[in-house]
DNA sequence: CTTAGGG
DNA sequence: CCCTAAG
């Protein structure tokens, strides 16, 4: 089992930015060792995803997507990347890789929305598979050197999901859906997210009955691909075949587009960190900027969503601050243990930026510790 | 259209 | 997450 601890530093390459703090960009060398296992895992085609491919009819070649790759990559707009000296070691090939990744995910999203299925992003393993198959192994290796997953250097939002892997994340991430109703509907929140390997291509409903769907890509699917994200590409899988079946089994509830809270996607730790990074760069309140620069590829996560998340983070960090009581323990047993480091950063940023909470003065932070640790925050816009 | 706030 | 008001 891999245990990728989130010793991510402020300047993590997730967003392709350079922080004004010490470390910046590319993965730190000390992470290489940790990643080696994962790399090996990725390099080994032992996991037969071809079944999934054919099942979904998502074979890149089959769809002739490869031919359109150039078009895609050329039309992709990276102009949003500020010149923070932030270089993302992202070659054209990397971009294509990322695009392939996104495209596949785009189809998945399409499927999810249209069919109402949440086949979960387990299928992203398919993407990896394809990537690994289409790219020169050496090349892939290079890509991976930029991080646990080469495409993680893809300049947009947190492509670092891989790093967050670890069991801790899945524990944490599957909690964020408060309503059991959605949890059920999303299925993947129960077990899907966090384990992306799906040895079995069969999609089953909760009763174990196999279901068949038309996964052929649609016209607008392609269009959507351009802006689809791959945020939920966790890699914390440990091939627990026992759970793999649950990963895929998805329940389709009678939810329509009219329903509010359509797909409440839980925020991953990576996203949160990306958000924190974004806030440190642009400051609180510049949510469109943060969205465009740090969550560009995240179709969901509107500026408002980001703002909301920040609001919640503040609350979380606040709660985390002074509650060591018994109520906390009870809460923690059910909820995810939001990484302390993140909460610290949140608190730090919060002390720096006054959130426009005109009335709620319930967010009080002692500026004592945050000042001592301060030095990485830039200036407000 | 973007943000702040409240639901 | 959603909706709305306000700039």
TrEMBL record:
Compositional bias ranges of the Basic residues kind: 254-264
SMART domains, sorted: SANT
Residue segments, region Disordered: 236-264, 321-340, 356-381
Domain HTH myb-type: 259-318
Key words, A-Z: Nucleus
Segments forming domain Myb-like: 259-314
Primary subcellular site in the record, as a coarse category: nucleus
Compartments in which it is found: Nucleus
Database matches in CDD domains: SANT_TRF (cd11660)
Xref: PANTHER family: MYB-LIKE DNA-BINDING DOMAIN CONTAINING PROTEIN, EXPRESSED (PTHR47122), TRF-LIKE 8 (PTHR47122:SF5)
Name this protein carries in UniProt: Uncharacterized protein LOC104782120 isoform X4
Taxonomic source organism: Camelina sativa
Top-level taxonomy: Eukaryota, Viridiplantae, Streptophyta, Embryophyta, Tracheophyta
């Amino acid at each position: 089992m891999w245990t990728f601890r989130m010793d991510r530093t402020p300047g993590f390459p997730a967003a392709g930015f350079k922080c004004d703090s010490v470390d910046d960009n590319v993965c730190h060398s000390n992470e290489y060792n940790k990643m080696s296992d994962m790399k090996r895992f990725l390099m080994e085609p032992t996991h037969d995803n071809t079944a999934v491919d054919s099942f979904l009819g998502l074979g890149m070649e089959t769809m002739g997507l490869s031919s359109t790759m150039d078009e895609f990559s050329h039309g992709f707009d990276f102009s949003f990347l500020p010149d923070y000296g932030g270089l993302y070691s992202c070659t054209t090939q990397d971009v294509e890789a990322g695009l392939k990744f996104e495209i596949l995910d785009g189809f998945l999203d399409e499927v999810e929305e249209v069919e109402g299925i949440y086949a979960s992003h387990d299928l992203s393993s398919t993407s990896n598979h394809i990537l690994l198959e289409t790219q020169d192994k050496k090349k892939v290796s290079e890509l991976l050197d930029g991080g646990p997953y080469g495409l993680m250097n893809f300049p947009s939002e947190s492509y670092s999901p891989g790093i967050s892997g670890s069991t801790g994340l899945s524990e944490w991430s599957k909690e964020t859906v408060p309503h059991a109703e959605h949890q059920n509907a999303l299925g993947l929140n129960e077990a899907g997210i966090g384990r992306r390997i799906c040895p079995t291509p069969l999609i089953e409903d909760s009763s174990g009955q196999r279901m068949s769907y038309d996964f052929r890509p649609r016209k607008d699917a392609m269009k959507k691909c351009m802006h689809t994200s791959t945020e939920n590409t966790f890699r914390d899988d440990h091939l627990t075949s026992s759970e793999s079946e649950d990963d895929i089994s998805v329940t389709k509830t009678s939810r329509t587009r009219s329903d509010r809270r359509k797909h409440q996607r839980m925020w991953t730790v990576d996203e949160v960190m990306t958000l924190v990074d974004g806030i440190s760069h642009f400051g609180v309140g510049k949510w469109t900027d943060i969205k465009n620069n740090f969550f560009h590829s995240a179709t969901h996560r509107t500026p408002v969503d980001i703002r909301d998340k920040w609001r919640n983070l503040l609350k979380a960090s606040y709660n985390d601050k002074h509650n060591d009581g018994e109520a906390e323990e009870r809460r923690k047993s059910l909820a995810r243990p939001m990484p302390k480091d993140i909460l610290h950063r949140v608190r730090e940023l919060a002390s720096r930026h006054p959130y426009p909470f005109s009335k709620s003065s319930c967010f009080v932070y002692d500026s004592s510790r945050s000042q001592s640790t301060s030095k990485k925050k830039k200036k407000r816009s």
